[in-house]
Amino acid sequence: RFRKQSSTMDNASRFLTWAFVPGIHLNRHVLHSHQSTSLGQRHAEVYSLRLRTPVMLSKASDNHNPLPIMTETESPSLLPESAKIHQIHVDDVVEIWTNKSLKFGIVTDIQEKTIHALTVSQDSEASLVKASSDEVVCVWPEEFRLNDIELEKALKAAHNLIRTSTPRSLSLDKLFVHLGMFSKKNASSCMTSVQIAEFLKGDQDHACLQNPNVTTQVAMIYSAMLVSSDTIRFRRANALKGWRAVPKSVASSRAYETFEELCKQAVDDVKQHKKSSIMWSADHMEILRQLEICVVSGSAFPKFLRNIMKSLGYEDSKQGAQELLVAIGFWSSNSSGLSSAAAESSSSSSSSSTSNSPSANSSSTTRNWAFSDEVLEAARQARDKLFAERTQLTDPNHPVSLDFLDFRRNDVLCIDDSTASFRDDAIHFHRMVYKKRDCIEVNVHVADVDQAVPYDSVLDKIARDRGQSIYLPAGPLHMLPPMCMEAISFNEKQAAEAVTVRMIVDLATGRVLDHTVCRSIVPPVRVMTFKKAQDEYETLGDNADENLGLLMEASNAIASFDGFQRRKHRSDYMSVREDNKASSSAASSSSVRKYEFSDMHDAVDVVLNTAGQFIRRFAKYFEVYLPERRGSEFFALRCGTAPMRKYMDLAVQRQLKAIINEEEPFTKEEMVELNRWLEKRLVESKKIVQEQRQRVLFENLANHCSQVGAGGAILKASIVDEKGGKLRVRLKETGLTATVQGSASLVLSRKEYMEQNKEIQVVVKQVDVTRQRIVVELLDQE
Questions:
Q1: What is the pTM of this model?
Q2: Which end of the chain has fewer CB within 10 Å, C or N?
Q3: Nearest of 519, 396, 380, 393 to residue 450 by alpha carbon
Q4: What DSSP character marks residue 759?
Q5: Is the CB of residue 184 less than 8 Å from the CB of residue 156?
Q6: How far apart are CA 514 and CA 614, in angstroms?
Q7: Are 90 and 109 in contact (CB under 8 A)?
Q8: CA-to-CA distance for 284 and 252, rounded, in angstroms?
Q9: Minimal CA–CA distance to 610: which of 662, 658, 574, 562?
Q10: What are phi and psi of 56, to 5 degrees?
Q11: In terms of DSSP bridges, do strands 512-522 and 404-406 run parallel, antiparallel, or are they unpaired?
């Protein structure tokens, strides 16, 4: 047997198994092997054979038992009811779907069209069930048979496995995509629990199945329970065929229909102080994400969300949505995110450790409630552990492993915005002679986020689900809980572990002569704002901080080698902030100001961009793949330098550490799959941020024009283009595009407006916030 892939075959038949035997002809019918003993091959699919000459086809095993061959009339899809029953035997373990629930039982009796099975449950005693063949989802292979006591134990083990290792989502995305590749009529579109268990063993989301203590029977029950509980994306296939995936559009529709019911169940669990038994599907998670965005941004709710919230008894407002997220246990009920017991147990450690962090202020905990209690408890434990380790590392005499470079006696600088609360990159420089050339050693330190957020942990799963931190005008929706980021962030009192990119820059040519990536220990950093660093460099000149001088010298050399192409043109970037009051009904104020970029911004950008370039080279040299795609609109110059707010950079950091620690990195297929998911999240995030910025900018401009009066506000603008017979201009103060009154030909006939991008003045005549439309009139040059 071998797999055959052909460009001429459609998706429904791309992954078919072909068997070639001399003297026979292949037919498009399905042959079922009932003598296969390997896992997942009880219902092995091959083409049925119409014999031209007598031939015996045997399977590859030691005893060479003959493989029974069905004729065309015996194809399973054409079998009568009695023939289906004949495929079930007494003492077989069967999965029965009855009354919208899955039961596991042992066949005790077989009649003409029905079977009797002794079903077992972890909560109640065994009971006898009568079922038709159509209600039998699948039959376990003979080698996996269990008696009633063994089946009950396996059922309890599978329940415990789900309860302890299932994330907020069912994590059946790969299975859904795989089954969705085939048409409904294709036999490969269905899988039994035997095949699903084998499939999930190769999925990192279900790494628990790789535990040697987990038997095959437990894995089969685990798989069947997960798939049967996800009624959104999967449904029962024909009798004995297992499960199949529904079309994606149907899955989305089902999610909306069942979301309300699941919310009610989750609310009851929270009220009874029970650990929620709800396993949210991927589609439900998308609905919950929309609720989160609406709360953080204060934007209008979609119609279907308004209807759901109304039926659940909540207002369709920011406050109402937040109350719903808390009620179902998706968000924490208090700002600290800790239960009273957890808060008391950590009060002594957290009070001292939090005070060591420069970001330990009220604003750092304002978004803690945007995570569940389970996530925040994991964040608290990570924070306490990390602060204790960092306190020891701060002592310069504390021994450090040989796997780390010790920079604790160096002066390390962290330059960031004045509004930044969490710092995940720092730099320091050293002048040196390398290969008889005057050089500067550039060290870019990136906080070791992987140390606090292990792969597949509770924190990792929420970070991967969100993809990145979203910075909206009303405030951020962080990828990780703030208390966790406080513990990871570089600060002025504690040393920290980091991943360091070391580059030797030739000042004469701007080339990077050598580079490497290593793990390191970074001392307490000196924090400077961009404004303070720029002012000190301009005022003191040669007497300025040594690191600042070397930073400017190294960045100018690198930029000159690149022809200054990496310098960003951001002179018209606008900072948009919205300050919402506590009450949802209260008015909100917003501020729009031009963001002042300095030479210090450009210098830090060049250094961090260059570090990203050599991170890619380092990974390529060791043939390790990164979760990014060249040519994508999200392919950035920076790579791996912001792991606290970008999951893509966190994945890059894990790949780098795997190289350094000589461990097995993630495969190319895993990185490609991760990139697809993250790009999907990035598209959503970009759209959300743009919509919210536009809304605030239009509201701010409308308020400004109303205060000016009937004459209209006079603003600076530049000509963009002509579209639909109208001239469009870009308002300098806001970055918004406006339409000029009158025809474009009439306006452009005036000589002073012929030059594109020339700065002109306009009078704002109308601002339509709802339709997001601005009409302006040109002012005469006088």
A1: 0.73
A2: C
A3: 519
A4: E
A5: no
A6: 10
A7: yes
A8: 9
A9: 562
A10: -110, 120
A11: parallel
